[in-house]
């Protein structure tokens, strides 16, 4: 048993589930990266920029449309799928309204930023945004799976969704049509939604009046996730809107290496997850491991990045070496921040976390608007580096203040490491923590508990 009474068998189960979710994340992210390369190689630069912008804005709108309800519902229902379905029934209407609004807003943002030259490209961009918001609805209906700890099936549905999308989208890229690529994305999301609805089953007719506290908690989680997305990719949107198409393509290609390596710190964390102590002070060793991983990966990005960009994307730029050196240095801090974020207790500190990511987002936007006109693409990379350094300072301050407080299982984090959250989403591990969260939200007993 660990110091907080968690059995090693439970930790082993968390480790297995988290590894499954992490593998699924690698497959999903890998298919997106491969499609970007194919669109650039087989279609043109404008289609590539539109595809990257639409996937980025689609991811942001998917987070906004979910309103944090999926994560909050899983977190509160903790192993009670019946309770989870009751909560889904309560918030279903607002979830669907949010999806419709966010799809329209996302399409408008893509049109404003990417400035498509034809209605054909305009429809393609809007369709890609719709595919992402639709995929977030699938995740919403898969909440009962995670509430029961069925991580493998949930991950399997995500992978099927992306593989169906990739199969059709590859044909579209070979055909030279971004519209077919976008159609493939929508079809894959529809397949994922169909599978999720079948597995979720019929929602109960009577809902539980928990929508207000659940929504408040969900909005805080959504704000943190949204902020982490925005501060990471605002630079590209600024370049695409006010720079040239070639500059935007080069920066997107360079930053793709940064994104591809971003799962490495979590992978290192996963390797030691089964032996992870719940004492917050003992986590410093894992932060040091993540720092070492970040240092090595950053050196690879800086040293071999220009060659990889040329090999994969066929792009070059006079400032490419400088950009990748800055991003490689930034990745060291990114790796540290990821691991520190995993260990940061979230119970009762959601507002503090929101303030951290909002500060990062505002600073990143301000630096992008100031540095990019002065220094071009290296200015965008420098904005990322400065933001990551600030994030590290804020995370360390937050972590130091949390040491000595009530211990929280780090695997219960559902903000910075969804792969870890999914691994910990079962009754044995997060049950006591979820009960405390219910008390703080002033939730009434569920009918399932009364029985």
Keyword list:
globular, disordered N terminus, mainly alpha
Query: From N to C, what is the helix and strand string?
Result: HHHHHHHHHHHHHHHHHH
Beta fraction of the residues?
A: under 5%
Instruction: Tell me the number of strands.
Output: 0
- Low-pLDDT stretches are 1-7, 276-280, 403-451
Amount of helix:
over 70%
- The structural domain count equals 1
Rg calculated over all Cα atoms: 21 Å
Average pLDDT value?
A: 77
Q: Note the main sheet.
A: none
Shape annotation: globular
CA(first)-CA(last) distance? 31 Å
Structural class: mainly alpha
Give a verbal description of the structure.
The protein is mostly helical and 451 residues long. The chain has one domain (8-436). Helix content is 81%, strand content 0%. The chain contains 18 helices and no strands. Helix 9 (211-242) packs parallel to helix 14 (350-375) and helix 11 (264-271) crosses helix 12 (284-313). The radius of gyration is 21 Å and the shape is globular. The model is unreliable at 1-7, 276-280 and 403-451 (pLDDT under 50).
Summarize this structure briefly:
The protein has helices at 8-42, 45-66, 69-77, 81-114, 119-141, 143-147, 151-175, 178-200, 211-242, 245-261, 264-271, 284-313, 320-343, 350-375, 377-402, 418-424, 427-441, 447-450. With 451 residues, the chain is an all-alpha fold.
């Amino acid at each position: 048993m660990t110091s907080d009474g968690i059995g090693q068998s439970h930790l082993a189960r968390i480790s297995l589930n988290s590894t499954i979710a992490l593998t699924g994340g690698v497959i999903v992210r890998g298919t997106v990266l491969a499609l970007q390369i194919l669109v650039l190689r087989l279609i043109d630069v404008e289609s590539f920029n539109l595809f990257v912008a639409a996937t980025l804005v689609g991811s942001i709108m998917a987070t906004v449309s979910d309103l944090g309800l999926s994560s909050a519902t899983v977190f509160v229902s903790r192993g009670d799928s019946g309770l989870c379905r009751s909560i889904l029934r309560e918030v279903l209407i607002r979830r669907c309204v949010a999806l419709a609004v966010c799809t329209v807003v996302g399409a408008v943002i893509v049109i404003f930023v990417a400035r498509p030259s034809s209605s054909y490209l305009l429809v393609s961009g809007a369709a890609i945004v719709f595919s992402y918001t639709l995929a977030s609805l699938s995740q919403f209906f898969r909440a009962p799976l995670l509430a029961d700890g069925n991580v493998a099936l949930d991950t399997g549905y995500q992978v099927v969704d992306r593989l169906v999308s990739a199969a059709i989208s590859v044909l579209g890229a070979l055909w030279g049509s971004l519209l077919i690529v976008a159609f493939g994305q929508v079809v894959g999301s529809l397949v994922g939604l169909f599978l999720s609805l079948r597995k979720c089953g019929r929602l109960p007719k009577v809902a539980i009046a928990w929508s207000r506290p659940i929504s408040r908690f969900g909005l805080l989680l959504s704000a943190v996730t949204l902020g982490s997305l925005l501060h990471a990719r605002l630079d590209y949107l600024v370049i695409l809107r006010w720079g040239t198409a070639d500059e935007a393509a080069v920066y997107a290609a360079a930053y793709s290496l940064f994104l591809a390596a971003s799962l490495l710190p979590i992978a290192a964390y996963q390797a030691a997850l089964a032996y992870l102590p719940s004492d917050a002070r003992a986590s410093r060793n894992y932060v040091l491991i993540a720092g070492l991983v970040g240092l090595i990966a950053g050196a690879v990005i800086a040293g071999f990045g220009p060659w990889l960009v040329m090999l994969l994307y066929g792009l070059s730029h006079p400032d490419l070496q400088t950009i990748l050196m800055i991003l490689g240095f930034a990745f060291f801090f990114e790796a540290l921040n990821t691991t520190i974020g995993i260990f940061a207790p979230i119970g009762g500190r959601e507002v503090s976390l929101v303030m951290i990511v909002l500060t990062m987002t505002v600073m990143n936007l301000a630096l992008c608007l100031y540095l990019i006109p002065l220094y071009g693409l290296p200015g965008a990379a420098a904005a990322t580096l400065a933001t990551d350094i600030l994030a590290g300072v804020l995370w360390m301050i937050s972590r130091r203040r949390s040491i000595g407080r009530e211990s929280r299982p780090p695997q219960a984090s559902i903000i910075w490491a969804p792969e870890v959250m999914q691994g910990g989403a079962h009754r044995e591990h997060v049950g006591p923590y979820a009960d405390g969260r219910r008390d703080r939200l002033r939730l009434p007993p569920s009918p399932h508990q009364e029985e």
